[in-house]
Amino acid sequence: MLSSEVLLALCAGAGALAAPGVASMLFGARGVESGETRTEALWTSEMPSMAPAPRLEGNLKVDLAIIGGGYTGLSCAYYAKKLRPDWSVAVLESHRLGSGASSRNSGAVYARYWGLDDEEMPRRGFERLVRFMEEEEIECDFRPSPTLELYASRRSARKAEASPEAGPKWVPTEELREGSHTDHYAGAAELPGYYTVHPAKLVAGHVKAARRMEVELYENSPVMQVKRGKPAVLDTPGGSVRADQVVLATNAYTPRLGCLKTAMMPVHQYTFSTRKLSEEEISGQGLDRWPLRFERSILPVTNFLTPSGHLCIRIVLGYASSNSCIWRDIDGARDLAKRMFEQRYPWIADVGLEQGWHGVTGHTLRVREIAGPVMGDNIHAAVAYNGLGIMPGHNTGYLSACRITGHPEEDMRYMLGRAVQIPIPGEFYRSMLLKPAMKVLTPV
Ligand SMILES: Cc1cc2nc3c(=O)[nH]c(=O)nc-3n(C[C@H](O)[C@H](O)[C@H](O)COP(=O)(O)OP(=O)(O)OC[C@H]3O[C@@H](n4cnc5c(N)ncnc54)[C@H](O)[C@@H]3O)c2cc1C
Questions:
Q1: Residue 71 contacts residue 206 (beta carbons within 8 Å)
Q2: Hey, which of 2, 78, 93 would you mutate to test ligand 1's pocket, going by the most ligand atoms within 8 Å of its Cβ?
Q3: Are residues 332 and 241 in the same domain?
Q4: Nearest C-alpha to atom 32 of ligand 1 is from which residue?
Q5: What is the rounded distance in angstroms from the CA atom of residue 203 to the CA atom of residue 328?
């Protein structure tokens, strides 16, 4: 979501000024954020509400406890039960299941892990996700999608057009203008291999599959503290869980739990949708020709048409201090997204915008996920997909289940633990340098 090179450059510059003592004096440790109301994504509002899971009340002892009930946590629980039906497996979710990034994303599915050149492992991960949807009979509007990569500046367009990969995929300027009904862009290439999915339907499918496998699901049960040990102990406001094995599937929220604070950071996003467009409006504006559009600017922008006919824009907001996953200025985010939307597609001003929602993605400087043991050998992480996590979240959930249950799986060798990550400078730099820099870079 956030261009990794930009994050790297900004943080590397900041790192050169290292003064960690000052940082810790200015910014104290901050704990888990729970109890706030999350803005509802269009995706969730299109679904019947899922049957609630109970809040954890009292104490529990399990073989495997998973913190976080998004694609990663639910997939890990599902495969762990498949591999070890005799194990007790519990998922503890601080809000509603799937209410993090998993139900707030742009629904683009691609056979790729950011930062990994190998194509075979992501292809196997993609096939695993497709098999899961088929076997569990998950109806989630999964389909191939014609996709554009758009360049706003003439310079970047010229460079992209001249690259050896562009070839027949390059869209001539006239065709682009006529086909996409915007003259905001200087060039575009068609991107093969993209699929789209309805994110909230995919969440519901994960929940249904986990329930079928008899995973114990708890909602509104934030883990406030993870205590190392064998068993490890997880404290929630309603009771504690003692678990032989623990998985942190908390993605962008992980640093607030006190874990991986130097290895990853949350980046905030905002998405705004139009009202439902008629079929004539969709074809009239060329939206059915390329329903998915990625803008390769410094802070990238995505446009996508939902299966129900809403056109959406997704923008990067930036970093909130202290690794917070709450964005206080939601009105400002709405205004910015509206401005950027109308700048790209002036006809949006007449159509009007309907629903906006906020979300967070977890990022590393290595631009690879963090997967593997992080606190002793029985507390594992499966987090930080750098903005492309629908397939990687599901697949890393599977790989984590394999590792924990001792199931042989060759792709476990791709799991990158904490040790190989590049440290991100601390709070002083994030707040005082990175945050304002990202604000300045917001392309309005
Ligand atoms: C706006 C946006 C657009 C995106 N677009 C795409 C896209 O098009 N394609 C793509 O592949 N990826 C996309 N992503 C990324 C993708 O959505 C995520 O990588 C993926 O959902 C990660 O799943 P997860 O289960 O790891 O994390 P989440 O879905 O974030 O789940 C983590 C869960 O942990 C819970 N939690 C956190 N702390 C605690 C605690 N202390 N105790 C208990 N529970 C806790 C949270 O409430 C949350 O439900 C996008 C993300 C965003 C925000």
A1: yes
A2: 93
A3: no
A4: 250
A5: 26
Is there an atom of ligand 1 within 6 Å of 196 CB? no
Please tell me the residue having the least CA distance from ligand 1 atom 37: 250
Shared domain for 282 and 157, answered yes or no, is yes
Closest CA to 158 of 182, 190, 188, 192: 188
Residues 148 and 294: beta-carbon distance below 8 Å: yes
**Nearest atom, ligand 1, residue 95 CA:** 47
Q: Given the DSSP bridges, would you call strands 195-196 and 108-109 parallel, antiparallel or unpaired?
A: antiparallel
Residue 72, domain extent: 31-139+198-260+365-426
Same domain, 229 and 303: no
For the entire predicted model, the pTM comes to 0.94
Give the torsion through C-alpha atoms of 202, 382, 106, 55, to 10 deg.
60
CATH of the domain at 204: 3.50.50.60
Show the CA angle centred on residue 415, arms to residues 66 and 404, nearest 5°.
40
Neighbour-count burial of 198, counting CB atoms closer than 10 A to its CB (0-12 exposed, 13-18 middle, 19+ buried): buried
Number of domains into which the chain is organized: 2
Rounded Cα gap, residues 279 and 274, in angstroms: 14
Distance 103 CA to ligand 1 centre (A): 8
Give residue 389 CA to ligand 1 midpoint distance, Å: 8
CA-to-CA distance for 162 and 160, rounded, in angstroms? 5
Q: What is the pLDDT along the chain (444 residues), one digit of tens a residue?
A: 555 555 555 544 444 333 333 443 344 457 999 988 899 999 999 999 999 999 999 999 999 999 999 999 999 999 999 999 999 999 999 999 999 999 999 999 999 999 999 999 999 999 999 999 999 999 999 999 999 999 988 888 998 898 877 777 899 888 898 888 889 999 999 999 999 999 999 999 999 999 999 999 999 999 999 999 999 999 999 999 999 999 999 999 999 999 999 999 999 999 999 999 999 999 999 999 999 999 988 889 999 999 999 999 999 999 999 999 999 999 999 999 999 999 999 999 999 999 999 999 999 999 999 999 999 999 999 999 999 999 999 999 999 999 999 999 999 999 998 888 999 999 988 988 888 888 887 755
- Centre a 10 Å sphere on the Cβ of residue 341 and count the other Cβ atoms it contains: 23
Same domain, 127 and 216: yes
Is residue 93 in contact with ligand 1, taking CB distance under 6 Å? Answer: yes
Residue 97 lies in a domain: yes
Closest CA to 257 of 67, 53, 66, 417: 67
* 369 and 390 within one domain: yes
8-state DSSP, 424: P
